[in-house]
């Protein structure tokens, strides 16, 4: 008899809808392959659901806050049931764009320069500081969101207005803007799986460019890069995956400008719909969606 898998999806983050989609598609694939599936929200019924269903493995299809940042992983640890992707500490480090950036810098992984901005400490001369340390335009982003939620490119003219709209975050990151190409790399355990280039038609790879097919972002695979450059970006993603202590599959987001790669972030819960980037990279390497999901399940049961 095939195993029972509990799929965790939905949640309360701003990426709830994407997570529900990931959950449904993983469920569909696993059902097709004879697994017994239950989909659960990470809510007050989770413990009851787990105890009643008794899954062999929990497939974490959550994204964003409380699903990707170590919180749910901490809760899952207590059930002593294997769960997919990264554990508590790697998840919380990777989700925090500042903490992970400090680790990238320490380990000589190139990443855009940044300053942290706290709304409670008034920096009256913020524009001067930016002019001196980063130069405009800059990118402002929350420290712990995903899917480009609340990521904005700012000029001197519109930065005050945009910062005003982000006050609920308390702290945000202001990064130098890196033009150039958008490249993402998938790591699968010890395997440098591959890379994909995104060519958004929009101003940048924002939420619409990611999920609205009408926005017509082009996906380019294989990437038009010389072998040594492709190796370089794959090695950077692999190093980030390892030093942060990630497990399973991760996807690292890069910008490539003037022959230099800049690591923006590493994602420990990459999207897993059939149209998501990791499945697309896997397919290009001859790994079907079915085999990718099967590998993730098998990996959940292994120690790092
Ligand atoms: N420093 C930057 N320079 C240029 N574009 C950026 C920069 N930071 C973010 N972006 C754009 O915003 C997108 C989302 O940013 P990212 O840091 O990956 O956050 P998220 O977790 O929301 O995906 C990136 O894929 C890129 O298109
Ligand atoms: Mg990203």
**Small molecules (ligands, ions, cofactors) in the structure:** adenosine-5'-diphosphate, magnesium ion
Please state the CA-atom Rg, rounded to the nearest Å.
19 Å
Name the beta content range: 15-25%
Please list the strands of the largest sheet in the order they lie side by side.
Answer: 10-9-8-11-12
Seen as an oligomer or otherwise, the chain set is single chain
CATH homologous superfamily title of the largest domain: ATP-grasp fold, B domain
In one word, what is the shape?
globular
Number of structural domains: 3
Describe the structure.
The structure is a single chain. This protein is an alpha+beta fold. It folds into 3 domains: 4-85, Rossmann fold (3-Layer(aba) Sandwich), CATH 3.40.50; 93-109 and 179-300, ATP-grasp fold, B domain (D-amino Acid Aminotransferase, Chain A, domain 1, 2-Layer Sandwich), CATH 3.30.470.20; 114-176, Dna Ligase, domain 1 (2-Layer Sandwich). It has 11 helices and 12 strands. A 5-stranded antiparallel sheet has the order 10-9-8-11-12, with helices on both faces. α1 (16-32) links the parallel β1 and β2 (36-40). Bound molecules: adenosine-5'-diphosphate and magnesium ion.
């Amino acid at each position: 008899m095939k195993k029972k898998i509990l799929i965790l999806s939905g949640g309360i983050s701003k990426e709830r809808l994407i997570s529900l989609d990931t959950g449904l598609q993983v469920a569909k694939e696993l059902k097709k392959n004879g697994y017994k599936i239950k989909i659960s929200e990470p809510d007050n019924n989770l413990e009851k659901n787990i105890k009643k269903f008794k899954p062999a493995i929990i497939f974490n299809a959550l994204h964003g806050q409380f699903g990707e940042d170590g919180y749910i992983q901490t809760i899952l640890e207590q059930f002593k049931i294997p769960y997919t992707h990264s554990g508590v500490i790697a998840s919380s480090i990777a989700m925090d764009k500042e903490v992970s950036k400090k680790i990238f810098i320490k380990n000589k992984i190139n990443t855009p320069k940044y300053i942290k901005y706290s709304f409670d400490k008034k920096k009256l001369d913020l524009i001067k500081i930016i002019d001196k340390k980063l130069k405009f335009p800059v990118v402002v982003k929350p420290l712990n969101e995903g899917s480009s939620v609340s990521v904005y490119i700012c000029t001197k003219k519109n930065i005050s207005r945009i910062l005003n709209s982000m006050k609920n975050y308390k702290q945000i990151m202001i990064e130098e803007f890196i033009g150039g190409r958008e490249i993402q790399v998938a790591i699968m355990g010890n395997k440098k799986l591959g890379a994909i280039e995104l060519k958004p038609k929009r101003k940048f790879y924002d939420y619409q460019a990611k999920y609205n097919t009408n926005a017509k972002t082009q996906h380019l695979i294989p990437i038009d890069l010389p072998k040594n450059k492709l190796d370089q970006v794959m090695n950077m993603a692999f190093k980030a995956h390892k030093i942060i202590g990630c497990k399973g599959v991760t996807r690292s987001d890069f910008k490539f400008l003037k022959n230099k790669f800049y690591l923006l972030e590493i994602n420990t819960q990459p999207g897993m719909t059939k149209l998501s980037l990791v499945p697309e990279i896997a397919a290009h390497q001859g790994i079907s969606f079915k085999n990718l999901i099967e590998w993730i399940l098998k990996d959940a049961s292994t120690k790092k």
